[in-house]
Amino acid sequence: GAVVSQHPSWVICKSGTSVKIECRSLDFQATTMFWYRQFPKQSLMLMATSNEGSKATYEQGVEKDKFLINHASLTLSTLTVTSAHPEDSSFYICSARSLGTSGPTTYEQYFGPGTRLTVT
Amino acid sequence: GQNIDQPTEMTATEGAIVQINCTYQTSGFNGLFWYQQHAGEAPTFLSYNVLDGLEEKGRFSSFLSRSKGYSYLLLKELQMKDSASYLCALTMFSGGYNKLIFGAGTRLAVHP
User: Fold this and answer.
1) By the 8 A CB rule, do B92 and B2 touch?
2) Which residues on chain A are in Cβ contact (under 8 Å) with B96?
3) Å from B29 to nearest chain A CA?
4) A34 has a pLDDT exceeding 50
5) By CA distance, what is B98's nearest residue in A?
6) Most buried of A71, B38, B57, B63 (most Cβ within 10 A)?
7) Distance from chain centroid for Cα B26
8) Do the Cβ atoms of A1 and A107 come closer than 8 Å?
9) What is the predicted pLDDT for the residue at A99?
10) pLDDT of B37 over the 50 cut
11) Distance from CA of B15 to the nearest CA of A (A)
């Protein structure tokens, strides 16, 4: 159980174009989804937190107009990188927290496999 | 704010034991996670500590001291496949949400 998928797993796009990444919880409903970015040999940096049906909360320094997040349902969140530039090339990982969990791992997040974005 | 420190790199021998330390400073502490991440892959859950003490799970154990802001991950009977990055992460309540904030990670290399 608790499987999270991401699509696409990798994408190459030209500078100036937009790219949409989907994050789905396959066998559970996710109250909250998180988007992270990871540069090579660095740790995961939280970009934003989204709850179904409400606006995402962005971390300091993350441009909300550049990284558009839509959490349309309890199983789907999307991240759109608008007007992508080479410096946006990174590994984007989403995670989801299950609805209604309780106990010691209430705060556990389930991670998707990641999407590698290369902007040329 | 929060600050999480862990060693950048460690090496160990197959079959040995290795301890990866993590120190932290934070407010709104709601628990500490350890994740394993192989290159190019998403993190996988290893352990969760919210109370002081040792949590054991097979070859992996994790310890927490909240008063000292200190945790460690202990890996026993090391195998080559344990070569990976190990991420210490804090759960903290901020801005209305429980968030997971990661340390920089420790790259462990296991050699024969």
Assistant:
1) yes
2) 57
3) 12
4) yes
5) A107
6) A71
7) 16
8) no
9) 61
10) yes
11) 26
**Can you tell me the distance from the alpha carbon of B31 to that of B47, in angstroms, rounded to the nearest whole number?**
10
Q: Does A84 touch chain B (CB under 8 A)?
A: no
Say if CB B48 and CB B33 are below 8 A apart: yes
Measured on CA atoms in the order A11, B81, B17, A113, is the torsion positive or negative? positive
Which residue carries 């097979």 as its tokens?
B58
Residue A101's pLDDT is what?
Answer: 54
Residue labelled with tokens 């759109």: A80
The tokens describing A2, both together, are 């608790």
SS3 of B43, please? coil
Euclidean distance between CA atoms A25 and B54, whole angstroms: 31
Report the residue from B42, B48, B100 with minimal CB separation from A34. Answer: B100
Residue A109 to residue B100, Cβ atoms within 8 A: yes
d(CA B103, CA B32): 11
pLDDT (mean) for A96-111: 66
Gap between the Cα atoms of B52 and B105, Å rounded: 22
* Spatial distance between the Cα atoms of B71 and B14, rounded to a whole number of angstroms: 23
Task: Supply the pLDDT for residue B67.
Answer: 93
Partners of B88 in beta bridges: B34
What one-character DSSP code corresponds to residue B80? G
- Average pLDDT, stretch A56-71? 92
Residues in chain A, total: 120
Q: Is B41 on the interface with A (CB under 8 A)?
A: yes
Alpha helix stretches (DSSP H) within A2-53: none
C-alpha to C-alpha distance for A16 and A14, rounded to whole angstroms: 6
Strands B106-111 and B9-13: what pairing? Answer: parallel
